[in-house]
Amino acid sequence: MVGGDPARRRAPRGASEAACPEPSRRHQHPRRRASLIAALLSALTLAVEARADELDDFITARDAYINGEYARATRELEELVGRPSTPQLSLVRSAARKYLAASLFAERHEPEARAEIATLLREDPRARLDPASFEARFVRLFEDVVRTMEPELDRLLVERAQARRLEENTRDARRALALELLGSEARVEVVPRWQTFVPFGVGQFANRQSGLGALFLSLETTFLLGSVTTAIVDQSVQSTTTQAGVFVQDTDGDRRANIAFAMRVINWTLLSAFVATTAIGIWQANDAWVPQRVINRVPRPLPPGLQGLQFSAHPGGFGASLLGTF
How far apart are alpha carbons 193 and 92 in whole angstroms? Predict the structure, then answer.
């Protein structure tokens, strides 16, 4: 029989584990956050070191060329110019290609050296060698490639000059637009639809078509006044041609009757022209009608403290900002 105090017996395994619960997730979050921050800082540090290494790698490879270690210089320079383009690498890429071509030429790989020089010139058509830094035979090879590619280089220079002018014009246009937007404010004007159904060019004037408005106004006014005038003349002639409703049969009466008939014809013609012109004007006004119209007006000048305007251009676009003191 196994003796011992029951109180001192070993507790069950499950009870022991229950007595020591796992750390809560709330305590794990700070650790995870700290790990993420450390990883980000490490990545940023590596990126900065990589940018610094590009210049160091170029200097190391150039020193290898100067010391006559052409195979090593070729290997390191090929790896350097093959990297993705960065602002730091763009500062040394042209020089790196020069030394790479020189290293290839020193290793008796003239076709590869020519190809590398051609690549350099296509990237920078104005690139030239410092004769004091390279072997004379390589300088002659470089100048020979330049002469061979001269038409292509001239074309590249013209195209890039045109692209540069286009970029400058675009930047100037954006700057002018920014100045216009900063110096004016937009006001939206609502054009009521009922105005387009009013004759005498009202619809055209509402649509800001002053020329058409003046044309329809003059035509419709002329036709209407002519119609009213001929109607008055017709009635006047008829009143003298008849007496107590009885037509007077004499020579003078016949002449007045002819005049009255002519007035009626002219009256109906002018009235028809008025109706037709009015219908055309209403149709044209409705066809050109725009519910809303944006009107720009220049506000009062900015206060002196807000008149500082700063523009900035960058590869991703164009920006403008106001500088002021408060």
Answer: 67
- Residue of 266, 265, 259 whose CA lies nearest to 236: 259
Closest CA to 50 of 97, 91, 100, 88: 88
d(CA 61, CA 53): 12
Tell me which residue has tokens 């054009």: 191
AA identity, residue 36: L
- Tell which wins on pLDDT, 105 or 242: 105
CA separation for the pair 157, 199 (Å, rounded):
62
Structurally, what CATH architecture does the domain formed by 38-148 represent?
Alpha Horseshoe (1.25)
Lowest-confidence range among 46-55, 175-184, 207-216?
46-55
Spans of all domains in the chain: 38-148, 156-184+301-326, 193-297
Whole-number Å distance between alpha carbons of 192 and 203: 10
- The Cα 289–Cα 209 span in angstroms is 10
Q: Which long-range contacts (CB under 8 A, 24 or more apart) does 18-22 make?
A: none
Say if residues 216 and 204 touch (Cβ distance below 8 Å): yes
**Token pair listed for 242:** 């008849």
Q: How far apart are CA 197 and CA 276, in angstroms?
A: 14
Q: Which DSSP helix (H) or strand (E) runs through 242? A: strand 242-243
Which two structure tokens, joined as six digits, stand for 16? 């022991």
**Residues 250 and 203: beta-carbon distance below 8 Å:** no
pLDDT band at 49 (very low <50, low <70, confident <90, very high): very low
Q: Contact, 286 vs 196, CB < 8 A?
A: yes
DSSP structure class, residue 6 = G
DSSP 126: T
